[in-house]
Structure to design on (836 residues):
């Protein structure tokens, strides 16, 4: 009780310092609680998926490539617990709402709300009867989309389709607006019919299993069965199993959560340092009081516990306040999670976890306080009477005023800096820590939000300015020559997207004609294939197969097998990609022909200009015909009829898997109009770079919010720390400041002296922390990825501007905050000291 009484008395006497320290503890407790109470992101994703019976594997079949026999094949398998197939619209283009600033690239599954489904259910919030429109995943609500607003889809030919937003929904997968594969929206039956008449439909097949160990085996069996059934290796356009897409959906959210909890730990470290500094400084300042207490009979233990109880009280109350603040901050953090993962997280109470966090923070700070009070036991009354000196040896005066060179202000500033070296060391350590954290956040924002190097590594796909998808009948050699002849095209590559089976598991085969021209896909070990018996695989594939460079793997495609030597490994942890030369894949499929041409454009030559070049050379693309906005030639009365017939032919060809069609229009025995699908060799022209830029906008938002959050909290911590430091310095030097004022020094001169006394520590700490962050942030991120199997992570070094900006912000703010806080000096006067 005596120690508790001393603690309460001390708090009443120096409540300002207690408030400053409490602010740091409040911030640390708040963010610890936000992260820990939210839980692990992957488990949240799995929990939502479980409620909606999410799929364990999905496959998107090309138009008219799905048959009921495929579902029967799955249902006969031992571990399959459910199968569901439905027609969906695969839409690529852009989407926006009039109240949203700019269109975002879209890659969407559009589903019919009236279809009955047993897997990957859709939970509609407040469905509206007898109305036409769309329901968007809940993540769109966080982007600013509102019920009743217009939702506009814009296809590659700039045709727009406008519908009313009827509400929002929960989905088990594809609910995130940052998803690189697909985003999932639900539309009413009339909207689905309208869009399907323009874009056709594909079949989405979902199935669930009771044993994840059998998942990939069943998937690969279905791939082989469907390819053999249809005699088409490209009958499945897209496929993924839960272990893969759950990582893809939650990876960046897990990174952000890890960063925030690490930042909370940094704040807590600052709190511990401040507790140790304040106690030790308080013991030095209050020698007279401690000596008086000891002379009155108080024991060293009682006095020491007085300090400990003081910080336990502050920490306990601050942790409670921080916990309450966490409930206010959680919605912002949950918004970031919803945008990135599509997982809806409710802000619920978690009293037991709150109590645990409060107790842990209080006990750790109490322990640090107890260890810091060891000096009280070493101070007998006799020593206290000598001002804390154990002997009468006086240290050498390092700065003699009468012999030192320079202005009196510089000399006094240097003298103060040497006199308060412990304070300056503490300040330097704290500034180093917060500077490291700030630069760390800036580097992540640059790497994930501004540059695209991280994202390219994640995708394990080539990102180019212009991509041309060819029809089956197209002469790729001739088209390649025409595109390559464009002086604004730097180079081209030809890519085929195929599917192969290795050890009864399905993988993607990327068939590339010239690996030397690749820019986005990076090899981490070895080299890309050169000979027809070589193959490169992603690190994920190598891990699944337990293979490395030099090992032999057997590829299977529609019953034909061939052995390949692994020549290299790419860095992506999520892709199922393998890489083959054209001659290499022809060992499996002799009739292979590339399906896509990727063009790298010269600077200043835009995608729109390239699209015009394609139009001038080849006429309309199939996607433009299907959009229905192709204009008729006013000089030809049959032009409108031709456009209508051609678009219908292309639609029939795509929807019913017809190889080619031709027609002729005869009038009075004369052919006035004739054409065929072969007149349109180009299916579509699009830009991967534009698609990536749209996804980056969401990552810029998420990591921009993270960087802003770190910046704001960093500045608050610096201000709080400086307020404690400056206050204790002013109190310790109050008599000296009064004497200096009596000697003629102005308040402004004394404030500058004290401010510049703190600057060296701030400058050293700011640059030291920034340099450490500059050197270890990206290696740290690389290590973080390597823990989940990502090897050879490729990144660009952050710009030196990022390092300098973090350091300059901290130094400038330290100067301004220090000068502001030294305003207390103006209240000190020689007259006041005489009175006291």
């Amino acid at each position: 009780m005596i120690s508790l009484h001393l603690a309460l008395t001390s708090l009443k006497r120096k409540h300002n310092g207690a408030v400053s320290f409490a602010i740091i503890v409040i911030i640390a407790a708040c963010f610890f609680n936000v992260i820990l109470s939210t839980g692990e992101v992957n488990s949240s994703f799995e929990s939502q998926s479980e409620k909606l019976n999410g799929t364990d594997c999905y496959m998107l079949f090309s138009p008219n490539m799905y048959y009921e026999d495929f579902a029967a094949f799955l249902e006969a398998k031992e571990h399959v617990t459910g199968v569901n197939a439905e027609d969906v619209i695969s839409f690529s283009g852009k989407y926006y709402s009039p109240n949203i600033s700019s269109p975002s690239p879209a890659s969407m599954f559009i589903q019919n709300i009236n279809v009955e489904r047993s897997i990957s259910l859709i939970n509609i919030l407040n469905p509206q009867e007898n109305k036409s429109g769309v329901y968007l995943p809940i993540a769109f609500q966080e982007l600013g989309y509102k019920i009743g607003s217009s939702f506009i889809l814009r296809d590659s030919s700039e045709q727009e389709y406008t519908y009313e937003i009827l509400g929002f929904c929960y989905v088990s997968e594809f609910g995130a607006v940052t998803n690189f594969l697909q985003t999932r929206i639900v539309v009413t039956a009339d909207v689905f019919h309208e869009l399907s008449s323009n874009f056709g439909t594909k079949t989405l097949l979902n199935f669930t299993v009771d044993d994840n160990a059998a998942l990939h085996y069943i998937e690969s069996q279905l791939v082989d069965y469907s390819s053999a059934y249809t005699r088409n290796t490209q009958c499945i356009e897209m496929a993924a199993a839960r272990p893969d897409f759950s990582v893809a959906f939650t990876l960046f959210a897990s990174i952000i959560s890890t960063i925030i909890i690490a930042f909370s730990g940094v704040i807590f470290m600052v709190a511990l340092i401040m507790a140790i500094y304040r106690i030790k400084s308080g013991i030095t300042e209050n020698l007279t009081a401690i000596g008086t207490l000891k002379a009155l009979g108080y024991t060293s233990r009682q006095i020491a516990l007085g300090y400990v109880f003081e910080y336990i009280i502050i920490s306990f109350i601050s942790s409670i306040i921080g916990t309450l603040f966490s409930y206010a901050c959680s919605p912002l953090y949950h918004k970031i999670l919803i945008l990135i993962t599509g997982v809806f997280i409710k802000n619920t109470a978690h009293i037991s976890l709150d109590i645990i966090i409060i107790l842990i923070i209080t006990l750790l700070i109490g322990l640090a306080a107890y260890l810091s009070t060891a000096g009280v036991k070493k101070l007998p009354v006799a020593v206290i009477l000598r001002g804390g000196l154990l002997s009468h040896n006086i240290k050498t005066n390092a700065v003699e005023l009468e012999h030192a060179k320079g202005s009196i202000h510089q000399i006094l500033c240097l003298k103060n800096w040497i006199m308060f070296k412990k304070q300056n060391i503490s300040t330097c350590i704290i500034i180093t820590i917060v500077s490291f954290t700030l630069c760390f956040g800036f580097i992540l924002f640059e790497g994930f939000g501004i540059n695209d190097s991280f994202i390219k590594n994640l995708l394990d796909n080539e990102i180019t300015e212009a991509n041309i998808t060819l029809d089956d009948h197209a002469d790729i050699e001739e088209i390649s020559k025409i595109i390559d002849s464009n002086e604004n095209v730097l180079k081209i590559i030809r890519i085929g997207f195929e599917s192969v089976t290795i050890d009864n598991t399905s993988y993607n085969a990327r068939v590339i004609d010239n690996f030397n021209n690749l820019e986005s896909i990076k090899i981490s070990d070895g080299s890309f294939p050169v000979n027809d018996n070589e193959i490169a695989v992603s690190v994920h594939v190598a891990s699944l197969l337990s293979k490395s460079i030099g090992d032999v793997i057997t590829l299977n495609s529609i019953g034909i097998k061939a052995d390949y030597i692994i020549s290299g490994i790419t860095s992506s942890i999520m892709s199922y990609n393998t890489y083959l030369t054209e001659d290499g894949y022809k060992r499996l499929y002799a009739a292979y022909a590339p399906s896509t041409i990727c063009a790298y454009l010269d600077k200043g030559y835009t995608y729109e200009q390239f699209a015009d070049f394609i139009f001038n050379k080849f006429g309309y693309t199939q996607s433009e015909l299907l959009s229905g906005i192709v204009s008729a030639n006013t000089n030809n009365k049959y032009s409108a009829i031709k456009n209508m017939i051609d678009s219908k032919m292309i639609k029939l060809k795509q929807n019913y898997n017809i190889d080619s069609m031709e027609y002729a229009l005869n009038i009075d025995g004369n052919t006035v109009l004739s054409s065929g699908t072969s007149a349109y060799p180009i299916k579509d022209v699009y830009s991967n770079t534009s698609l990536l830029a749209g996804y980056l906008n969401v990552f810029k938002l998420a990591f921009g919010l993270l960087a802003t959050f770190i910046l704001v909290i960093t500045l608050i911590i610096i201000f709080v720390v400086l307020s404690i430091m400056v206050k204790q310095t002013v109190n310790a030097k109050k008599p000296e400041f009064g004497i200096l004022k009596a000697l003629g020094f102005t308040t402004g001169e004394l404030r500058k002296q004290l401010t510049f006394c703190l600057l060296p520590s701030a400058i050293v700490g700011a640059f030291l922390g920034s340099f450490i962050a500059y050197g270890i942030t990206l290696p740290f991120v690389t290590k973080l990825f390597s823990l989940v199997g990502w090897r050879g992570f490729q990144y660009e070094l952050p710009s030196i501007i990022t390092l300098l900006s973090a350091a300059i912000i901290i130094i400038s703010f330290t100067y301004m905050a220090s000068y502001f806080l030294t305003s207390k000096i103006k209240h000190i006067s020689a007259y006041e000291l005489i009175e006291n």
